[in-house]
Amino acid sequence: MSFEQVKVPSRPELVDFHGVPMVYFFTDNWENIQNFQARPDDILIATYPKAGTTWASYILDLLYFGQKERQKSVPIFDRVPFLEIFFPPCLSGKDQADNLPTSPRLIKTHFPVQFVPKSFWEQNCRIIYVARNAKDNMVSYFHFDRMNLAQPEPGDWSNFFQRFMEGKMVFGSWYDHVNNWWKKKESCPKIHYMFYEDMIEDTGREIDKLCCFLGLSPSAEDKMKVTGGVQFDNMKRDDMANYSTNPVMDFKISPFMRKGKVGDWKNHFTVAQSEQFDEDYKKKMKDATLLFRTEI
Ligand code: PPS
Fold first, then answer.
1. Which residue, among 294, 250, 291, 244, has the nearest Cα to 268 in the 3D structure?
2. How far is CA 53 from each of CA 48, 104, 237, 272, rounded to the nearest angstrom?
3. Ligand 1 mean position to 235 CA, how many Å?
4. Which of 13, 132, 136, 182 could bridge across to 196 with cysteines, CB 3.0–4.6 Å?
5. Rounded Cα distance, 45 and 291, in Å
6. pLDDT tens digit string along 11-50?
7. Which residue among the candidates 110, 143, 177, 192 is catalytic per the annotation?
């Protein structure tokens, strides 16, 4: 059975898992995931949820595998398996990754850095980490939790806003996630840390940096095809990229490819919420080298 045919019984509860709030879909296969055998050429795409995972996945898939038939017939979530997802009777993300016929294998994870299976480090795999400013990330996550019936109930906006600041989200605190991956990058040259805002500002420039990191040198024509193909409107129209084939998502509530903007938080945060958020942010984000832009 494929992921597209799955039925979700009811919305899951958040549980504490090794100190991180999680839901059972991402922890029930823990032992198998931890024993995942990475290969040296595997590429892991790691993100906090809603930071630009699908965008980065699509870019990498196009860079490596071009405009092949699979672009028209295989959804992005099957081309780039989600390592920790476990939705019996569907194939688990881990088994999907094991069965990937491609080389390199592109694999997605939302794990905080301490949960990444050790073979990725032992094999010295390349890792692309994408981070997005907390305010827009929060808004995107709110709408995602409204429409994704496999996520906990989001509650209303003000409730969600508080929970986000407290780190009570699936995959834990945004603050811990982006900071701990950033620290890891300092000692691990195989991590390429990207920002969603930079991708919005100049997709071509960020693809160049990515290619440099990956040791790829696409022709100018191929690069143009990738840059054009991954623009928001193109991905939104593309049923293989926009998650419209995924049954756990209710697009009548909100689409997966929602707005794709920097600064949409201004349409959600009240002035008081923005001030409260900024105060709290200063206390949690002490590393002066990790800087986010909430507008461009
Ligand atoms: S997930 O569910 O965690 O894998 O979601 P993720 O892909 O990380 O994040 C979804 C948000 O990324 C936006 N997105 C894009 N923005 C700009 N350009 C492109 N091409 C693009 N592709 C995806 C998507 O619209 C979600 O953000 P919001 O703010 O909700 O629109």
1. 294
2. 8, 17, 17, 30
3. 10
4. 132
5. 21
6. 999 999 999 999 999 999 999 999 999 999 999 999 999 9
7. 110
